[in-house]
Write a structure and sequence with these properties.
By secondary structure, this protein is mainly α. Helix content is 64%, strand content 0%. The protein starts with a helix and ends with a helix.
């Protein structure tokens, strides 16, 4: 029943913010606001689109679980959770504006669902941040979302190989030589970063293993 659990988790995060006028809600009468499960169902339908192989509800679930692990490092963990729901809600592997379109979806949906402009702005900002995964120093929410999104890089070798294979499937329309060149550039860019992870937990638990996985994949290119 993973979808039922995901629906509940979305509603819990949204209602925690919506029912707190001082921290995220608009103060509107809850009886006049849409059912949060309506938005969860729309988002889950997006995460189930047929062009996805890695960016599926399984990835969403993993990111949410990682956010739970890192929640103490976020200023607003429920906003980070909502941003996770939207961060790949629009996903077409043949297009480059997925993050921007996902952020705009959040900007339309969250006020309609009863959340304040401040919460909406922060959630959309976090979605856009997943374009670079480079939060500024002191951006605690950004650090948590980026680390949760990239935690797959620190998987066990078998799980990492499955991730890499799923990414290749999403780009099946790209010829092999072109894919290898593009993927090589991505791996080299990641390995050149001074740090892949920005939370204390991520740096301690995930950094070394992620670099090992990336280097192993790069050697196989």
């Amino acid at each position: 029943m993973p979808d039922l659990d995901l629906r509940r988790r979305f509603a819990t995060a949204l209602l925690a913010l919506r029912d707190s006028p001082g921290s995220g809600g608009t103060g509107a009468d809850p009886g006049n606001l849409p059912d949060p499960y309506r938005y969860a169902d729309d988002l889950l339908a997006r995460w189930a689109e047929p062009q996805r192989r890695y960016h599926t509800a399984g990835h969403l679930l993993a990111v949410l679980d990682h956010i739970d692990t890192l929640a103490d490092d976020a200023d607003d963990p429920d906003i980070v959770r909502l941003a996770a729901w939207f961060h790949d809600a629009v996903y077409r592997p043949d297009r480059s504006e997925n993050e921007e379109r996902s952020a705009r979806l959040a900007e339309r949906a969250l006020p309609e669902a009863g959340l304040s402009q401040e919460v909406t702005y922060e959630a959309a900002r976090l979605v856009r941040l997943t374009t670079t995964h480079a939060p500024e120093p002191g951006d605690r929410n950004g650090a948590v979302l980026c680390d949760a999104d990239l935690a797959i890089l620190a998987s066990a070798p078998t799980a990492y190989a499955e991730y890499a294979a799923a990414v290749r499937e999403e780009y099946a329309f790209v010829p092999e030589d072109a894919f290898r060149a593009g993927r090589t550039a991505v791996l080299e860019r990641l390995l050149a970063l001074p740090s892949l992870f920005h939370t204390p937990y991520g740096e301690l638990a995930w950094e070394a293993r992620a670099r090992q996985n990336l280097a192993t994949e790069l050697r196989g290119m």
